[in-house]
C-alpha cells in the first residue's frame, strides 16, 4: 500500500482542526472581524460613530422601545455608498423621542418623551417639513436591544462600532511589533558580538519600563488619537518578538542547512529571510496571538484612562469608563456588556494561541 507522506503544514493543520476550542475561537474571531468591518451595515444607528444622542431616553434598560420623530434638515449631504458602509452615514436630521402625536390642519402636534410617567412638553411643526405632508413616514417605533447609554445613544450600535477599534488595533500593533521584532531579533541572533550586545541593551531598557507607562509616554508624545494609540501599542510589543527570534536564530544558525547556504555563497540577507526565518516562525506565530490579546487589553486600559480613542469615537474601554459608576446605581449592564466583549475577544485570542502552540509543536 502506498502512503502519501504529509508535510509539516498538513500535520499542523490536522492537529489544529482536532482542537475544538481552537477552531471555535478562530470562527469567533472571524465573526468579530466581519462585524468590525461591516459595523455600520449591522448597527441600528448607522450614523458616524453611532453618535445619535437622545438625552430624554438616557440609561434605559435593554429592550426599551420609544416612538421616534425624525425631522429633516433639508440639507443634502454628498456621500458615496462605500463611505456609508465603512464610515457611517453623515446625519443632519434631528431625531426626537415622543410619547404621542396628532395631525391638526397643516401642523403636526407632538408631545416629547418624558421619563417616569411625566407629561412631556407639547410642540408643533408645520407639515411642509415632511415630503408627504403627513409626518407619518417620519414617525417610527425604535427598539434599543441593549438599551441606551448615559447620553441616550444606542448601546448595541456603540458596541458593534467599538469592535472595530479593539479588533484592528490587534492587527496594526502586531504588524508593527513583527516588523521591528523580526528585524532586531534577526540582527542580534545572526551576527552576535557587539551588534547582539547593543540590541540586547535596547531590549532590556525597553523591557524594564512598565508597558502601560511606556504606552502613555508614547501616546502623549504622538498626541491623542486613533492611529497614535495603534502605533504606541505596537512600539511597546516588539521586544518580546525580538527576544524569541534572537533565541531561535542562535539555536539554528549553525545547523547544516544554514552552513550549506553559506557554502553556496548566499548573502546574509537571503540566508536569514529565505532559510532561517521560515523555519522559526512557529513560536513567533504563537507569541503574535498572545500579543493580539495584550494589544486589546492595553487599548482598553488607555481608553479607560482617557488617552485612547477620543470621543465621539466608540471604544469598549471608553464605554466602561463612561459607565463604571452605574454598576452601583442599578444599571451594571452599561459597563458589563462592553467588558464581556473585551473578555470574550481576549479569551478567543488566548485559546487560539494555545491551539497553535499545540499544533506547531514538532515533538507532539
Write structural notes for this entry.
The protein is α+β, with helices and mostly antiparallel strands. It folds into 2 domains: 51-144, no CATH class; 155-359, MetI-like fold, CATH 1.10.3720.10. The protein is 57% helix and 10% strand. It is built from 14 helices and 5 strands. The protein has helices at 8-18, 20-37, 39-42, 81-87, 155-191, 193-208, 211-222, 226-236, 238-252, 256-263, 268-276, 281-305, 316-323, 333-359; strands at residues 64-71, 94-104, 107-112, 122-126, 139-144. Strands 4-3-2-1-5 form a 5-stranded antiparallel sheet, with no helix packed on it. β2 and β3 (107-112) form a beta hairpin. The two termini are 26 Å apart. The mean pLDDT is 85. It is a multi-pass membrane protein. Pfam families: BPD_transp_1, OppC_N. Residues 163-353 form the ABC transmembrane type-1 domain. This is Peptide transporter. InterPro entries: BP-dependent_transpt_permease, MetI-like, MetI-like_sf, OppC_N.
Entry summary:
Residues 163-353 form the ABC transmembrane type-1 domain. The chain has 364 residues and is an alpha+beta fold.
Low-confidence stretches: none
What is the count of DSSP helices, taking H or I runs of 4+ residues?
14
Major sheet details: 5 strands, antiparallel
Q: What is the CATH C level class of the largest domain, in words? A: Mainly Alpha
Count of individual beta strands: 5
CATH topology of the largest domain: MetI-like fold
State the helicity in percent bands. 55-70%
* Radius of gyration (Å): 27 Å
Q: Going across the biggest sheet, name each strand in turn.
A: 4-3-2-1-5
Q: Tell me the structural class.
A: alpha+beta
* Percentage of residues in DSSP E strands: 5-15%
The secondary-structure element order is HHHEHEEEEHHHHHHHHHH
For CATH, the homologous superfamily of the largest domain is named as MetI-like
Distance from N terminus to C terminus (CA atoms, Å) equals: 26 Å
* CATH second-level architecture of the largest domain: Orthogonal Bundle
- The outline comes out as elongated
Mean pLDDT: 85
- The total tally of domains equals 2
Amino acid at each position: 500500500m502506498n502512503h502519501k507522506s504529509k508535510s509539516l503544514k498538513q500535520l499542523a493543520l490536522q492537529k489544529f482542526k482536532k482542537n475544538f476550542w481552537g477552531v471555535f475561537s478562530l470562527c469567533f474571531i472571524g465573526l468579530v472581524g466581519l462585524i468590525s468591518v461591516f459595523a455600520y451595515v449591522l448597527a441600528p444607528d448607522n450614523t458616524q460613530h453611532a453618535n445619535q444622542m437622545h438625552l430624554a431616553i438616557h440609561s434605559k434598560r435593554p429592550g426599551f422601545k420609544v416612538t421616534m420623530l425624525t425631522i429633516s434638515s433639508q440639507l443634502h449631504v454628498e456621500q458615496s455608498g462605500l463611505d456609508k458602509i465603512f464610515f457611517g452615514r453623515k446625519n443632519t436630521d434631528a431625531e426626537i423621542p415622543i410619547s404621542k402625536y396628532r395631525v391638526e390642519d397643516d401642523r403636526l402636534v407632538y408631545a416629547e418623551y418624558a421619563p417616569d410617567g411625566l407629561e412631556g412638553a407639547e410642540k408643533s411643526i408645520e407639515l411642509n417639513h415632511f415630503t408627504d405632508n403627513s409626518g407619518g413616514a417620519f414617525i417610527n417605533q425604535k427598539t434599543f436591544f441593549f438599551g441606551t447609554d448615559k447620553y441616550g445613544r444606542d448601546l448595541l450600535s456603540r458596541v458593534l462600532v467599538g469592535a472595530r477599534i479593539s479588533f484592528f488595533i490587534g492587527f496594526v500593533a502586531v504588524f508593527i511589533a513583527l516588523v521591528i521584532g523580526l528585524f532586531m531579533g534577526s540582527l542580534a541572533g545572526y551576527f552576535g558580538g557587539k551588534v547582539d550586545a547593543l540590541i540586547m541593551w535596547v531590549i532590556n531598557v525597553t523591557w524594564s519600563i512598565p508597558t502601560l507607562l511606556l504606552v502613555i509616554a508614547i501616546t502623549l508624545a504622538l498626541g491623542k488619537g486613533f492611529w497614535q494609540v495603534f502605533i504606541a501599542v505596537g512600539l511597546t510589543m516588539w521586544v518580546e518578538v525580538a527576544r524569541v527570534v534572537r533565541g531561535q536564530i542562535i539555536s539554528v544558525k549553525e545547523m547544516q542547512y544554514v552552513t550549506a547556504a553559506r557554502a553556496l555563497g548566499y548573502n546574509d540577507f537571503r540566508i536569514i529571510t529565505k532559510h532561517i526565518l521560515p523555519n522559526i516562525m512557529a513560536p513567533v506565530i504563537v507569541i503574535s496571538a498572545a500579543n493580539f490579546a495584550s494589544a486589546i487589553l492595553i487599548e482598553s486600559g488607555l481608553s479607560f484612562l482617557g488617552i485612547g480613542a477620543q470621543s465621539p469615537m466608540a471604544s469598549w474601554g471608553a464605554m466602561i469608563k463612561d459607565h463604571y459608576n452605574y454598576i452601583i446605581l442599578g444599571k451594571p449592564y452599561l459597563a458589563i456588556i462592553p467588558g464581556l466583549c473585551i473578555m470574550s475577544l481576549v479569551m478567543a485570542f488566548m485559546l487560539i494561541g494555545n491551539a497553535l502552540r499545540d499544533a506547531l509543536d514538532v515533538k507532539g
